[in-house]
Amino acid sequence: MPAFGIALFAAIGTFLFGFDTGIATTTIAHQSWITYMDKPSKALTGAVVAVYIAGEAGGALTQTVLGDKLGRIRFMQMMCIIVTIGTTVQTAAINMNMFLAGRVLAGFAVGGLVGTVPIYLSEISAPHQRGLIGGISGCGISFGTMVSNWVGMACGYASYGAVQWRLPLAIQIPWGIILFIGLSTFMPDSPRQLIRKGHVDRARVEFIKIRRDLHSTEAQEEFALMHAQIEYEMEREIKSYKDIFRLFRRRAMVSIAVQTMTSLTGVNVIQYYQTILYKSLGISSEMILVLAAFATIKQNYYYVFVGCTSFFLVIAWFYFPETRHKTLEEIAAAFGDKVVTLTEIEIAQEQTVFEEKATMGHVEDRRTEAHHQV
């Protein structure tokens, strides 16, 4: 399956992030939910968002610990199971405690997925497609948020009762199952992850499947460089967070800055609490569920976000290196990391292995054809 198709399917993980994040916005706005949950206090209503974010943080931290040990595919499968349980618990909630428990579980799983999917996509994508494919995961978040708000608004027109908020929550349940099936069947392992775990032959096979856009010689050279670079990095494996800033200071600061500047645009405040803000303005319940802009709110509130965004624009313009159409090794070099170089002998050795694998592949294909003919 082409990398682009794999990226679209893997974006289900980030779609879940956007949908599960956005669905809380309309859920807490439904009077039927407020009544069913025995009119929760403002603190409990805020907890609907807070415990989800706490779960996301836990899932993201778990990804740093287990992501490499389990591998990208296995880790995402585990998160699919947890998110299915979490969304089911939310849908079936009979009280606030049960609802919050479901939010924590779903947040944990989505935090792990949203931290893994971009890494997975960057590892399987070609340099000339990496920007597009990486952007698909971000689009998944935005699309999920948009869909959740429209679904929440549409269900607001249902007969008054639990179906107004249970149905939107239930729509989340199948996506984790669908992604799990895809991960178990056709989605390839990350060649880089396989090399790190010592499965070089499997990594080579997966690389050939993914990078069908390359000619034989180009594939051999790129795989050989990737293999050599990963082995070099494993020899100086990071043992502590201090080593991250010592060896990869610029890369670490750029990563932190990107996440920080994203939050300081004000998108989270707007997304999570827009319905409460609308209600304080005396806007009707139906209009609250439809509105997607804040034109009626005074602009002073946003000056802080405008200032932060402008500041980070300058930082990104002058400090962030360009990564367009570059391999991950070339990107590492752009950040000042040491990148290995290959000798002609090493390239020739890799070419020999590729030819042997290709010959074995032809033999297997012929055996399969003969078996079917019999």
UniProtKB/TrEMBL annotation:
Residue ranges of domain Major facilitator superfamily (MFS) profile in the record: 6-374
Entry's localization field: Membrane
The entry's keywords: Membrane, Transmembrane, Transmembrane helix, Transport
InterPro entries to which the protein is assigned, alphabetical: MFS_dom, MFS_sugar_transport-like, MFS_Sugar_Transporters, MFS_trans_sf, Sugar/inositol_transpt, Sugar_transporter_CS
Any Pfam family matching the protein: Sugar_tr
Membrane topology summary: Multi-pass membrane protein
Name of the protein described by the UniProt record: Major facilitator superfamily (MFS) profile domain-containing protein
Family: Belongs to the major facilitator superfamily. Sugar transporter (TC 2.A.1.1) family.
Organism encoding this protein: Rachicladosporium monterosium
Keyword Chaperone in record: no
Membrane-spanning residues: 45-66, 78-94, 100-121, 133-159, 165-187, 276-294, 301-320
